[in-house]
Design goal:
This is Methionine gamma-lyase family protein. The protein is of the alpha/beta class. The protein is built from twelve helices and 13 strands. β4, α8 and β5 form a beta-alpha-beta unit. α5 crosses α9, α10 packs across α12 and α11 crosses α12. The structure holds pyridoxal-5'-phosphate (PLP).
């Protein structure tokens, strides 16, 4: 027995599962190299943005109170704008999460009588309450903002004639979700998003195109802001926070739009000028600096998971060979027991709370029970190794993250082991 094999055994991985993992990993060398090259490119992009904006030691100072002249905060926003090639950015701990960032962007731009259009089908679950698809206090619907959605074609891509028909005089903003989220449609490449934006702008250049960029940052060499998006929006406890940001969200885009978002976030008249950074700046900068590498590790984990579960006979989205446009890996396990065992395995691999056992639970913002596996340094952080499974058909689990590839690998092997141990996966399928 090699020392490596022994170490895995100490962590509860049987010889059979370990050997299976080694066999699958060997075939992925070329894919992994491609991810490393993207990370290298994006690392240089971030470094360039930091150098250009003269990031310096004073950027890490603790600022409290109103936060006037919070130099660290203002410089970080310039760094994001440079890295994403936008005119401006809002990057704040006062933006509490991705949903908040998206709700902020929507409510900053839309006015009573305006219409919001999603040309990519149903948005992320938590957005349903923001928009008012599911009745909710404070939704856009309560403010007289209407919503239209164009369903996707069979292949998961855009129904251009229907999108054209859906545009009307009241359409003010189009929201495009890059990642599949809790669905089994494809996540979209930046190139495809660019085509969709060009189609809309050719018909109505005045429409604001916003991209929900959650889970997409640094997966490719370009971002939706490079292909015509007026605003891109995301969470700092996903890719761009690099695992270090303890909270936060960002909106990057056109100066005029970012200004509106700032007035909505704080107050008319105050805008970007207030909002002290309260000592989180070091983690925001350092997290952004690490984000390309961390995202790369998460991508390796996702592709490894896809190939492992494909080999075991499950349907995986994306499949083991497809190109990647976000860090999420969906695995259709087909039964509640499968979803639960998978998540218990991921939990058992965690550096934090590895000894607890997750159970399905009703979560705010979701319309079914959800089981969540996360043993994270930052609560709920999904750039850290995590898995979520809504307990409803098709009983798919959504796996993402891993601050390091090695941890992601252990997590996936643990999930296989847990499924074997629970008897939801037969021994003879692990070959
Ligand atoms: C995670 C996510 C959100 C919401 O972000 P939270 O930080 O969980 O509020 C929105 N859209 C997509 C596509 C996401 O993946």
């Amino acid at each position: 027995m090699t020392d490596m094999e022994k170490m895995y055994q100490e962590l509860g991985i049987s010889k059979k599962v370990w050997e299976f993992g080694e066999k699958v990993e060997k075939k992925l060398a070329e894919r992994f190299q491609e991810f490393d090259r993207t990370a290298e490119y994006n690392q240089l992009k971030v470094l360039h943005a930091m150098q250009k904006n003269k990031v310096n030691e004073a950027c890490f100072n603790y600022v409290s109170g109103y936060g006037y002249n919070d130099m660290g905060r203002d410089t970080l926003e310039a760094v994001y704008a440079s890295a994403f090639h936008t005119e401006a950015a809002l990057v704040r701990p006062q933006i509490t999460c991705g949903t908040h960032a998206l709700a902020l962007a929507l409510s900053a731009i839309l006015r009573p009588g305006d219409e919001l259009l999603s040309p990519v089908g149903k948005p992320y679950d938590t957005l349903e309450e923001v928009i008012g698809i599911r009745q909710s206090k404070g939704s856009l619907a309560e403010y007289g903002i209407t919503y239209k959605q164009v369903e996707l074609l069979e292949d998961g891509y855009f129904d251009y004639p229907a999108i054209e028909r859906a545009l009307n005089d009241r359409t003010k903003l189009v929201t495009i979700q890059r990642s599949k989220g809790y669905q089994t449609r494809p996540s979209y490449s930046v190139e495809k998003i660019g085509e969709l934006i060009a189609f809309i702008k050719a018909r109505r250049p005045d429409i604001i195109c916003m991209v929900d960029n959650c889970y997409g940052e640094f997966v490719e060499r370009i971002e939706p802001s490079d292909v015509g998006a007026d605003m891109i929006v995301g969470s700092l406890i996903k890719n761009p926070g690099g695992g270090l940001a303890p909270i936060g969200g960002y909106i990057a885009g056109k100066e005029e739009l970012i200004e509106s978002c700032a007035y909505r976030l704080t107050s008319p008249g105050l805008g970007r000028e207030v909002g002290a950074s309260l000592g989180v700046m070091t983690s925001f900068y350092q997290g952004f600096f690490l984000a390309p590498t961390v995202t790369c590790g998460a991508l390796k984990g996702a592709v490894f998971a896809a190939n492992i579960y494909e080999q075991l006979g499950y349907t995986v989205v994306p499949d083991g060979k497809e190109s990647r446009h976000d860090i999420i890996q969906a695995v259709k396990l087909g039964t509640p027991e499968g979803v639960i065992a998978f998540c218990k395995g991921i939990q058992a691999a965690a550096p934090v709370d590895s000894y607890v056992s997750p159970e399905p639970w009703a979560m705010p913002g979701y319309d079914s029970d959800v089981i969540m596996a996360a043993g994270a340094f930052v609560q709920g952080s999904s750039i850290e190794l995590s898995a979520d499974g809504p307990i409803k058909p098709p009983y798919a689990v959504y796996f993402q993250g891993g601050l390091t590839w090695y941890h992601a690998k252990l997590g996936i092997l643990k999930s296989v082991q847990a499924m074997l141990d629970a008897g939801v996966l037969e021994e003879d399928r692990v070959v």
